[in-house]
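At this stage, I needed to go through a protein sequence along with its fold in token form, as given directly below:
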Amino acid sequence: MHWYVDGLKKYTVFNGRARRQEYWMFTLFSIIVSVVLTLIDLALGTSPVIGTLYSLAVLLPTLAVGARRLHDTDRTGWWQLLALIPLIGAIVLIVMLSTDSKPHTNAYGPNPKEAAAY
């Protein structure tokens, strides 16, 4: 859960690097919250008001953690625009987000795997 909260705290931090675990745990919790809010929307009959508000609220944090994850693979955050290409773009982007970190310091900062654990 702390990965999700950390992602929200760094909602406009587009520089630096993010490990795979940070990105995927943020994405997992965001999807879970989205599903729960969709169910609440359906139960209240307000569909899709609450879900849409949540999606807008986490848009910047999602883009920021995605950019930091791509930085960890030594790519620019602009690669997220691949998601706009139907099907193929999303597949290529998922592969990029799933690849391992570059082992040493790159143009975006030091490797977060080498940083002290907390």
